[in-house]
Design goal:
Blueprint lengths: L7 H11 L12 E2 L2 E2 L7 E3 L2 E3 L2 H7 L2 E6 L2 E6 H24 L4 H13 L3 H6 L3 H13 L10 E14 L2 E11 L5 E13 L2 E8 L3 E10 L5 E7 L11 E5 L5 E4 L16 E12 L5 E10 L2
Length: 302
């Protein structure tokens, strides 16, 4: 809570000075709501101004006075209580999250998918890795922890294990099945990586799969740096949202070795290399095949 410095306390003192005697040796009394304020140091009149202990005035007005870093802070007791309540609430949530933390990879995937289905951002957040929480906190907070849309809504979901990199990293495909009041139905596919953190499992990444295939063309800029790749999926039923497309390589593009968090240099993007591409949520040139900035490129076989 924002601490409030009571500048009006000075105003109160000035008002009190108008009601005091005109002589320095006159006893000065202070009242709030008809009750006299008892002070350990008597108020005094100096140069036609009343000097009084600020703590006595502030506490009489129901405020809290603290001394920090050579400065006096005056704040409402309600703010202090609110801070304490907020700290207690944070601790309660933290303990709940610890108690409900998934103990296996599939449970983490199921909890996350259920959070998406029920539009429960707090549940989604609770099963995210520390790094992903840091990245997504503002997003969830701005939504007041309610995600998705009321229509269309997610009717069901299906979770399939794609691969396990090792005993501590699993990759899942999650298909969300949507519907609306007209009965229209469609599906959305996402891929999540679940990792083990000490004794618990958390979702460490969430990605769409826009294109999965081989790089058939690499484009360089005037500095001989890779600026884009063209990826084609030769199968009749593409694994991604698009059968082919151009992925621009920017400063924010992350290139990983397979499904790990090991980052690679863009020099590994050569013709014939198998990749999975996730576009950013930014603008996309939708003249087919699509062209957009790559958010994540996962490289296989290097």
């Amino acid at each position: 809570m924002k601490k409030k410095k009571l500048f009006f306390a000075v105003l109160a003192v000035m008002i009190l000075s108008l009601a005091t005697a005109a002589f320095a040796n006159t006893a000065i009394k202070m009242y709030v709501d008809g009750e006299e304020i008892e002070t350990d140091v008597d108020p005094v009149l100096v140069n036609h101004r009343v000097l009084a202990p600020v703590r006595a005035i502030a506490e009489a007005l129901g405020m809290e006075v603290t001394w920090k870093n050579n400065a006096v802070y005056i704040e409402s007791k309600a703010d202090v209580n609110d801070d304490s309540k907020a700290d207690a609430c944070d601790m309660r949530i933290q303990l709940l999250e610890q108690a409900l933390a998934p103990k296996d990879a599939l449970s983490a995937a199921e909890s996350w998918a259920e959070g998406v289905k029920t539009r429960n951002g707090a549940l989604e957040f609770a099963v995210m890795s520390p790094e992903l929480r840091e990245e997504k906190y503002t997003y969830f907070s701005d939504l007041n922890w309610v995600t998705g849309t009321s229509s269309p809504w997610i009717e069901s979901y299906e979770i399939t294990e794609v691969t396990n990199i090792n005993d501590e990293i699993f990759r899942y495909e999650v298909i969300f099945n949507y519907t609306d009041s007209t009965g229209y139905e469609f599906s959305e596919r996402k891929f999540i990586t679940v990792k083990k953190f000490e004794d618990n499992w958390f979702v460490s990444s969430m990605e769409r799969l826009d294109i999965k295939g081989a790089i058939t063309k690499v484009t360089f800029d005037d500095k001989d740096e890779i600026s884009s790749i063209f990826v084609e999926d030769p199968s009749d039923q593409p694994a991604g949202n698009y059968k082919e497309g151009t992925a621009f390589i920017g400063e924010e593009t992350k290139i990983y070795k397979g499904y790990t968090d090991t980052e690679l240099d863009k020099s590994v993007l050569t013709e014939g290399t198998e990749v999975e591409v996730t576009y950013t949520d930014g603008p996309m040139i939708m003249i087919y095949p699509p062209q957009a900035m790559a958010k994540v490129i996962r490289v296989f076989g290097n």
